[in-house]
Amino acid sequence: MASLDNMCKCQPQHAHSIIDDLPSPKWNKKAAARHTCIGIYPFEHGCADYLSTTDTHPKINSIVLADRATTYATHFWAEFFGLLHIAVAFVVSFLLQSYRFLLYSLVNTLIVGLLHTTSDYLVKPFLTVIFNGFLQPPMIFLYNIMCSLRDILEPLAETLAHFIKPLATLGSSLRLIHVNYRNVRRFSKDV
Asked: CB within 8 A of 13, min separation 6: which ones?
């Protein structure tokens, strides 16, 4: 904002004042002996009046009136569209709130109620009939058969385990292959 204000306040400059008005750097002789000093020359950004070819411009009233008319027209249309923005915001917020009301109060309640009712009175009884009437009896029958087979074959399995355990111990003591892993480094390369 400050640079825009400076651009608006910029006065026509004379050709000799561009170079003459530059501040000269202040040298501290003691500091200069110790280290290097850098002089900074300020540059006024945004003011381009020094590029003009004439020193003084005639004051034209129509340009001043045009600037004022532009300012007033900008303020008028900004206020007009600000009022339109208020009206549009009122209509848009009405539409959004009515849409929210429809979704939250009607659609959400209706969908949740339909799903809950369908689940309680259709899906759950159907799954109960399928499980209790068709799946559970054969599964219980198979479970009972497998438990009976386990109980019948358990003594036979223990007897076989007593005979096979010594053979397994003997087989595990025999090695058919013996492998040593060593990392051997070669110092010569095959060419």
From this structure: 49, 50
Output the pLDDT for position 121. 93
CA 158 vs CA 17, 73, 145, 146, 163: distances in Å: 114, 104, 20, 18, 9
CA distance 119 to 121: 6
Q: List per-block mean pLDDT (blocks of 10 residues) for the chain, which spans 191 residues.
A: 54 48 55 56 56 64 87 93 93 94 92 93 93 93 96 94 90 77 68 60
Q: Where are the domains of the chain?
A: 7-56
Is residue 12 within 8 A of residue 56, CB to CB? The reply is: yes
Q: Let me know if 47 is exposed, middle or buried by CB neighbors in 10 A (0-12, 13-18, 19+).
A: middle
Q: Decide if 18 contacts 6 (C-beta within 8 A).
A: no
Give Cα 74 to chain centroid, integer Å.
Answer: 39
